[in-house]
Design brief:
This protein is an all-beta fold and about 260 residues long. About 0% of the residues lie in helices and about 45% in strands. It starts with a strand and ends in a 9-residue tail after the last strand.
């Protein structure tokens, strides 16, 4: 097979050379995703620096706040501070913004992501969110030989599985989403480090309330994106399980992927 289970061959990736992925598309880095029509705007992490002047201080944000028993969307505020940052390959600093996000009412739980309210997405509103799995709880391994696969129990009694696959030809890991009778490649893992862990799943559930599973996946590895996949955004083809509905570009910290 061209792609082998990354959970079986995880050690092979530790010896893969960074240049071997030169011909591969940097998955999880879709420059159009943030600006596509009707995209969901969100941020992963806090106190993040972003280039440009795309953000404004406002109280129209929601924190996806989770604990092991479930998640909810809670009102939050974004405070923006002008700040420059200079990478070690840059001749001069890049002007940008520092993003400080806070829940309006402090409380227990772990914030997985921050979503901006948008009239185009009326389902983004305070309240409980149907959740199947999140980083705030323990993930489940499927009944397989793998160690890095993540299983997600769906409400219909079936399971979805996230599987890192190792490509012999290009020496990179791709993340595959599997449901019964359907499989979909989501993007490339470990683009910088070449080391794969099972921390790619941030959250899974039904964010927009349409009854179809949605997924928040992190491809951030010193560089990269976090991508929101909505079941309702999938192409009407036979195999796509979920389509990209939003993206967050990570700040260029951590050595700029070198």
């Amino acid at each position: 097979r061209e792609l082998l289970s990354g959970t079986v061959l995880c050690c092979a990736a530790l010896f893969a050379q960074a240049g071997s992925a030169g011909a591969a598309v940097e998955a999880g880095r879709e420059p159009w995703a943030e600006d596509m029509a009707n995209s969901v705007r969100f941020v992963v992490g806090n106190d993040q620096w972003q280039p440009g002047r795309r953000y404004k201080s406002s109280a129209d944000w929601l924190a996806l706040n989770c604990n092991p028993s479930g998640c909810s969307l809670e009102p939050a505020r974004l405070t923006v501070k002008t700040e420059s940052w200079q990478g070690h390959y840059d001749d001069k600093p890049t002007r940008g913004q520092k993003l400080d996000l806070r829940k309006l009412k402090p409380g227990p739980g772990s914030v997985i992501a921050w979503f901006q309210l948008d009239a185009r997405h009326p389902w983004l509103k305070p309240g409980p969110v149907t959740t199947y799995a999140s980083r705030a709880g323990r993930t489940r391994r499927p009944a397989s030989e793998g160690t890095l696969e993540v299983a997600i129990d769906l409400p219909d009694g079936k399971s979805a599985t996230l599987v890192p696959l190792f490509g012999r030809k290009d020496q990179v890991f791709q993340l595959q989403l599997r449901e019964p009778k359907r499989r979909q490649i989501l993007g490339q893992l470990a683009h910088c480090s070449r080391e794969v862990a099972n921390d790619f799943l941030l959250w899974a559930g039904d964010l927009d309330g349409d009854g179809r599973p949605d997924y928040l996946i992190s491809f951030i590895d010193d560089a990269g994106q976090a991508l929101l996949y909505l079941g309702g955004a999938a192409d009407q083809g036979e195999y796509e399980i979920a389509g990209i509905a939003g993206a967050y570009d990570s700040p260029p910290y951590g050595g700029e992927c070198d």
